[in-house]
Amino acid sequence: MMQQFLSYTYYLLLGVLIFNLTQRKHQDHGEKKRLASLFTAGGILLFLTTMQTVIHFQLIPWGYAAATAVTALYYWLLRKKIALFRLNCPECGSRYSWNSIFYYDNPTCACTTEVPEVPASVDDVDWDTWKAKEEAVLCFIVKEGQVLLINKKTGLGAGKVSAPGGRVEPGETPEEAAIRETIEETGLTPSNLEERTELCFIFADGYSLHGRAFFATDCSGEMVETDEADPFWCSVEEIPFDKMWADDPLWIPGALEGEKKKGVFIFDGDTMLSHRFEKKS
What we know:
Blueprint lengths: L1 H22 L3 H30 L5 H16 L1 H4 L15 H6 L30 E10 L2 E7 L8 E2 L2 E3 L6 H13 L1 E16 L4 E14 L7 E7 L12 H9 L4 E8 L2 E9 L2
Parallel strand pairs: 1-6, 5-8
Antiparallel strand pairs: 1-2, 1-4, 2-3, 2-7, 5-6, 8-9
Helix pairs in contact: 1-2, 2-3
């Protein structure tokens, strides 16, 4: 009976891996869900391995419970990275399309597809009451005249040079997100972080983003290339601003010197339409 159950579980593992292959076509807008399916497959493989060990050494029946507990702990520790497949829109409760559920990190619904009118200028926006659709962070590691940058491979800004960073997950502080994203993208763990820049973006397609830029003075670990980024060290004087977002040369040099600012921007694709800076206390 148990062997028959495990054979079905092997088929489940194969199905999840095949599904993950289909997700690779959607990496530009579904990278987190692709990783979620990989983590799911890892949990199934862990369960199969532990159960086969129990059967081989005849650690029955308590071994079954131990194998199940280990697998449950695995899924609990990775729950924030796996539980991303929301079925319904949180705003109106409508069911997402299957394509949106499985392949889009940020699925859209009929209640949110209407693109709002883009302000002509940042001065037309009440930034005190403005709320972004997503929160994100950047983390610059600056050490011995060098700054850590990445060639971004996925997500918003793919193909550009940037600092390590990404979206803030539920339950995280921005600083925790900055450390996690840097580790995930570069293998390095930043330390002595300081928040220096606040960034608010409105895009012509209706997307909006509130960002925070952190600057670290040290790091540990070994730098590695990942699926999300190709990291490299660069002299502070030779930062390739021509390969970066249009706003970056306006605030990064000052921030590297310790300057604290808040910047607000309106973009149409890669084109910056309007911007303004103010000092932060």
